[in-house]
UniProtKB/TrEMBL annotation, chains A, B:
The lineage of its organism: Bacteria, Pseudomonadati, Pseudomonadota, Betaproteobacteria, Burkholderiales. Its cofactor is Mn(2+); Mg(2+). GO terms for molecular function: D-malate dehydrogenase (decarboxylating) (NAD+) activity; magnesium ion binding; NAD binding. Coiled coil: none annotated. It comes from Tepidimonas fonticaldi. This is D-malate dehydrogenase (decarboxylating).
Length: 360, 360
């Protein structure tokens, strides 16, 4: 079996609690499918490291991590101690940029045993699997450019400006990825912009969508403004398949979509460098959750599901599918599997992690 | 009674169909409350005008409209004939800027007889009035700045840039308005930014919120990132009171919030110049709806409700309340009032408009 070298970064808060469960399930998958996963753990990208070193990362972090096939990440951030824009721009957002992880991939799927807060127009609930979208987010440019600054500081005339930058290179490659995925799924692609209001960058994105669509006659394309699209997510979430958007709009939609499936606490996320020139990064959508950290009650499914996405990316579709099935089996009503408090039970993080590993 | 001079601009599509019903209800309110409303209708800001004149507005539109107390607006846009960024930037967005309508106000309230697509965590529906938010959107600067451009056009190196500009003047005045409203409502204010990702402009907005909050110790302030806030709208919409946000984020939230109350087709919107140096503008949230235009089946409630906001702004709170009660009475299950197709009935625009006018 090919060797897969994986850098493990638990990070802050519940990141350190859910990571062992993610690893437990990956080990179980490795033994069932005969995979050779080699883990190495790093203690940076967290507040305790910052406290000791005055930085989120060691100076040679790119060398340390660059040779791995993947980074398995927990969560970062501890706002009481260190502002988010320092901790995140000093770690996670560095990884995304330096390792050119230009696709952020976030599946949102209504799982069995998880309640969606949405009902159909006739008042009936959606069935498991009926809401099933894949959000494809541009992950390196767009609205997240730190170009700009402040003027007339501290006076009544004070102002701030910040650039959004979109490049053809950056837009086309994420669109191509999204079209390819749509082709392999249900053949529908929805693009979110705001061209009627943000009238320079957003029409450009639309233009590139139309150009790319010409090469994918088999994919049905819809273009929406982000405002009305959020309304449609709530009104007709079952109508969407692949949804592609800029860095900011993808960020918003990839929290809203899991919220629509009731799964924001268990949603996974993949930050991909599809060409594999650099390691890709896999992390739960949830953050470090300081409010429940240290109590051993965090739901580990986001971390475990992210591990499944990692195995898929490393070429093991069968192992991915088996983990997702094990998660579904644990969540299914009447499964008897332990449930963490967010799922209405009293079990701990490790109880649920063990149950999923055993189901494998 | 003081004279109120009102410019009426029906605009495109269903704008021309719902406007007569809005006027009908305003006339009814005027006679009941002894108001002196003087209407003058203008035929610009629509595709037919553009077709004849090659522009959305006459050159002297600022003089023509500047002396009115308010503008009562239908809808603009006809994408098949003219791109949105031309029709909107050539009319509606001009009004907002030139008349310094820096507050966009959008109530979202669960009305009787209207189904919310959301249910509570225990699966039960929300009751009318239980979801009741007021979105306060900055309406003149922020992400909607047309500063920027394109480089290396038509080549592989092509890129676009666009500025976001926030001024202390612009941010503080809309925040002050929102804090004042929160004080008069339930005393809660939620601010939406994205400071962990958009790390120059958004932290500035947060900073101004904190500065303003110091002067409103009686208002409870929450600051959220926009991504997780959209998730909370879906999960706990009853927890929000006043929500204040930048131009773009306010735009998104003020479609999402009505969607959460099932009322996107009937939601109203006020574009205010609170100091009354310029006319304020009142319009339904819905657009010109080319797909149903010309059939006389559009729901006129958004237009009527916007008229109520106009009377409130002109100093007639009692007339506002009476119109909202008449809308609620018509919507209430078993009211016997005619229902348009979007509400599950077969009535026409005028039937529903007449019913509401009569209920007054
Ligand atoms: C039409 C468009 C430019 C406008 C906006 O984004 O302001 C609309 O969505 C609105 O919310 O009034
Ligand atoms: C923490 C924050 C900067 C980040 C983002 O917006 O990218 C997060 O919300 C995410 O979606 O991964």
């Amino acid at each position: 079996a090919p060797v897969h070298r994986i850098a493990v970064i638990p990070g802050d808060g519940i990141g350190t609690e859910v990571m062992p469960e993610g690893l437990r399930v990956l080990e179980a998958a490795a033994s069932r499918f005969g995979l050779d996963l080699r883990f190495e753990t790093f203690d940076f990208a967290c507040w305790p490291y910052y406290e000791r070193h005055g930085a989120m990362l060691p100076p040679d972090w790119q060398d340390l991590l660059g040779g791995f096939d993947a980074i398995y990440f927990g969560a970062v951030g501890w706002p009481e101690k260190i502002p988010d824009h320092v901790s995140l721009w000093g770690s996670l957002l560095q990884f995304r940029r330096a390792f050119d992880q230009y696709v952020n991939l976030r599946p949102a799927r209504l799982m069995p045993g998880v309640r969606s807060p949405l009902v159909r127009a006739d008042g009936t609930p959606y069935a498991p699997g009926e809401i099933d979208m894949l959000i494809v987010r541009e992950n390196t440019e767009g609205e997240y450019c730190s170009i700009g600054g402040r003027m007339f500081e501290g006076t009544e005339r004070e102002l701030v400006v910040q650039e959004t930058v979109m490049t053809r290179h950056g837009v086309d490659r994420v669109l191509r990825f999204a079209f390819e995925r749509a082709r392999r799924r249900r053949g529908r692609l929805t693009s979110a912009t705001k061209s009627n209001g943000i009238a320079i960058t957003m029409p450009y994105w639309d233009e590139r969508v139309r150009a790319m669509a010409a090469g994918y006659p088999d994919v049905a394309v819809d273009q929406y403004h982000i405002d009305i699209l959020t309304a449609h997510f709530v009104q007709r979430p079952d109508r969407f398949d692949v949804v592609v958007a800029s860095n900011l709009f993808g960020d918003i939609l990839s929290d809203l979509a899991p919220a629509c499936t009731g799964t924001i606490g268990i949603a996974p996320s993949a930050n991909l460098n599809p060409e594999r020139r650099f390691p890709s990064l896999f992390e739960p959508v949830h953050g470090s959750a300081p409010d429940i950290a240290g109590r051993g009650i965090a739901n580990p499914i986001g971390q475990i599901w992210s591990g499944a996405l990692m195995l898929d990316f490393l070429g093991h579709r069968d192992a991915h599918d088996a983990i997702v099935r094990a998660i579904e089996a644990a969540l299914a009503p009447g499964s008897g599997a332990p449930r963490t408090p967010d799922l209405g039970g009293r079990a701990g993080t490790a109880d649920l992690g063990r149950a999923i590993a055993e189901a494998l």
